[in-house]
Amino acid sequence: MKKIYRNRKPTKKEIEACLPWLKKQIEIINPQKFILLGEVAFSVFFSEKELSSFRGKWLEKDGKKFFITYHPAAGMRFPKIKKAIEKDFKKIKRTIREF
What we know:
Layout: H1 12-29, E1 33-37, H2 39-45, H3 51-54, E2 58-61, E3 64-69, H4 72-77, H5 79-98
Parallel strand pairs: 1-3
Antiparallel strand pairs: 2-3
Organism: Candidatus Nealsonbacteria bacterium CG15_BIG_FIL_POST_REV_8_21_14_020_37_12
InterPro entries: UDG_Type-4/5, Uracil-DNA_glycosylase-like, Uracil-DNA_glycosylase-like_sf
Keywords: 4Fe-4S, DNA damage, DNA repair, Hydrolase, Iron, Iron-sulfur, Metal-binding
């Protein structure tokens, strides 16, 4: 993905420009599990859903599993979100041990 400066969300046009590259990488690597950090990453795979409804959970789509959490930068700005992210990363750590 392309670096976005000034900590802004990428535009829809920028996301669409990068998607073919991302899809090709996923096709080549064929990962079975993903960790989606933040609204932008979440919306690429689950555009019809809201991140806050699925944060801290595993979702399945097309035979692949996705763990959903906030972007770490949000935790730097909001203490409540930081605690949620820390909880989520502990859950990820436990899950990785089960692989």
